[in-house]
């Protein structure tokens, strides 16, 4: 088997480094009428918003505040109404993955003439134009700053659904690592875990002898293993924070996923855990991934051994032992950065198993994984093993 055909294009401009927010002045047209989208106020408190406002200078702008973690359709639609009503023609998301994802949806929904919920049910495919948008990311985790995905929730109906469209590529992301210093430990750990699992979902499948993608993926995993704990310990150490941030961006910008099979079952099951129980995204992944790797150990055998040897430095000829240790080390890594990896530690009991399976069925997620062989029965075993 060899690397699959691919068509890779990532048009997002990345401006990275200290004191870069002022660059917004040359990235956004002078005559733009800008709606800044923010979350619950962290970017007000840490000074990012005021720097952004200064950079916008004399441009007409306003702020829409209140995008929640795990952004909702309802709140995003309030921003859409505001844009339509006041004729904004540029959207600037300033915040974490939730703000960025909401901004993508908003940019597409403003121009959408039908019922905007169709954007979600079509998984983003029905979007055929967006208003221009860019980002000032403040939380390294999702890769949303340089990819074409967004995840939107509707709490009343227990839906958390991924949407994707090439039009969801941001025009630019201005990443100043110092703007992430104010993150609480919990969010930094979530970000390390999320980025780690993004790499795993594109790497730990079956081999297509994609040497470049594999080595890049292993490099990112090693970087996260080394820099994650450092940046948690010393949040204001620029070097480790900058390395962590760039690893998180590269983990899900299309590069390592080009031409290789991808899994994404951990994410799909994880989204159901978030919408049902409110567990942070990165934590759901840390709970599920070790169980999934163990459940799929036959199908993923070759890659699990490669991962154990190249990423964790495991040696010896007992391949079953290498697989066991590679999975154990993965779990220990999540726990070492302060993430609990069992559902019961989040006060979730065995009744979750049926609930998650029911959600997966309702969302047609019945053939997950790189081979489409993670059926509802397999997902059930994965959740059971994660209790
Ligand atoms: O709301 P505010 O006040 O801004 O506070 C946020 C929020 O409470 C806070 N925060 C962000 N930057 C901060 C900060 N606090 C202090 N200092 C800063 N610099 O952090 C909290 C969590 O923010 P959120 O944006 O929700 O986190 P994250 O970036 O982890 O995003 C999670 C969302 O992204 C989706 C997830 O499903 C979830 O909905 N994902 C998006 C993906 C994509 N677009 O490609 C892929 C991912 O797999 C993921 O599914
Ligand atoms: Zn993720």
From TrEMBL:
Highest taxon of the lineage: Bacteria
Keyword RNA-binding among record annotations: no
Sequence ranges assigned to domain Alcohol dehydrogenase iron-type/glycerol dehydrogenase GldA in this UniProt record: 11-177
Record InterPro entries: ADH_Fe/GldA, ADH_Fe_C, ADH_Fe_CS, BDH-like
Residues annotated as domain Fe-containing alcohol dehydrogenase-like C-terminal: 190-359
Keywords: Oxidoreductase
Annotated protein name in UniProt: Fe-dependent ADH family (YqdH) (PDB:1OJ7)
Species: Commensalibacter papalotli (ex Botero et al. 2024)
Biological classification of the source: Bacteria, Pseudomonadati, Pseudomonadota, Alphaproteobacteria, Acetobacterales
